[in-house]
Amino acid sequence: MIEVSGVSKSYSRGAVKAVDQVDLTIQDGEIFGFLGPNGAGKTTLIKMITGILNPDTGTIKINGRDIQKEPVEAKLQLGFVPDDPNMFARLTGIEYLNFMADMYHVPKEVRLTRMQTLLERFDMDKAVRDSIQSYSHGMKQKIIVIGALLHNPPVWILDEPMTGLDPRSSFVLKEMMREQADAGKTVFFSTHVLEVAEKICDRLAIINKGKVIFSGTMEEVQTHLRKNQSLENLFLELTKNE
Ligand SMILES: Nc1ncnc2c1ncn2[C@@H]1O[C@H](COP(=O)(O)OP(=O)(O)O)[C@@H](O)[C@H]1O
Ligand SMILES: [Mg+2]
Questions:
Q1: Which among 8, 144, 166, 173 is positioned nearest to 79, based on CA atoms?
Q2: What is the pTM of this model?
Q3: Which of the residue ranges 68-82, 92-106, 199-213, 215-229 would you say has the lowest mean pLDDT?
Q4: Greatest Cα pair distance in the chain
Q5: From the alpha carbon of 36, which atom of ligand 1 is closest?
Q6: What would the pLDDT profile of 116-149 be if each residue is shown by its tens digit?
Q7: Three-state DSSP string of 44-66
Q8: In the chain, N or C: fewer CB atoms in 10 Å?
Q9: Sequence spans of domains, the chain
Q10: 1-77+154-242: CATH number
Q11: Where are the beta strands (DSSP E) in 97-201?
Q12: Bridge partners (DSSP) listed for residue 8
């Protein structure tokens, strides 16, 4: 469960209000989509949820642990897939995975079977010995997804996860998100692509200019849609400039 209460964040000494008084609760067992155009504030909120940035105001709890007051406890609950997979380029895939497993205290016996299963599912079992800088964008993305799941986190957070993935990997990732949610875990992801949100979310929030302007179940969206015809229309209507 993720609880975001009254969270705001400005950049450039207040000149840019990236996130404006956001309240969100994401329950266990659901895939929650965070939808908004580029620059809406999605990455900024995700960086605060994962403890990379501190909010100006408000609190964030991950399974009851305050990300600012109990950062280590809160972060151990999380698996995080950032929007930019360009990191640890000098390591090989397997070195990176072992590093992640060490960071999250995954016992040796468990990590080998988990790695093997995940590597095979993402067709990365051969490339894992090569250095990350030799990987394509999609392969980097996949090794980060695997690294984020090694400690079997109860809360999974992904920032624009489908970007750069080939159709097969994208399918496998969506399948995994569903499995995690069905196993009672929390899955929170951002996207600027309507179709992705439409297909896999149980609940979603639409953010524009730092403010959450719509939040509800897919069913509630559908009800709204009867008037507005498509999620695309709703999205365009809600995010249009006044
Ligand atoms: N480090 C930064 N300094 C100043 N402005 C920033 C910084 N990062 C993001 N912004 C601005 O904050 C707003 C929200 O950005 P972001 O959270 O990245 O949105 P999204 O992920 O939805 O595309 C945008 O107007 C962006 O230009
Ligand atoms: Mg972003």
A1: 144
A2: 0.93
A3: 215-229
A4: 57
A5: 22
A6: 999 999 999 999 999 999 999 999 999 999 999 9
A7: HHHHHHCCCCCCCEEEEEECCEE
A8: C
A9: 1-77+154-242, 84-153
A10: 3.40.50.300
A11: 155-159, 186-191
A12: 57
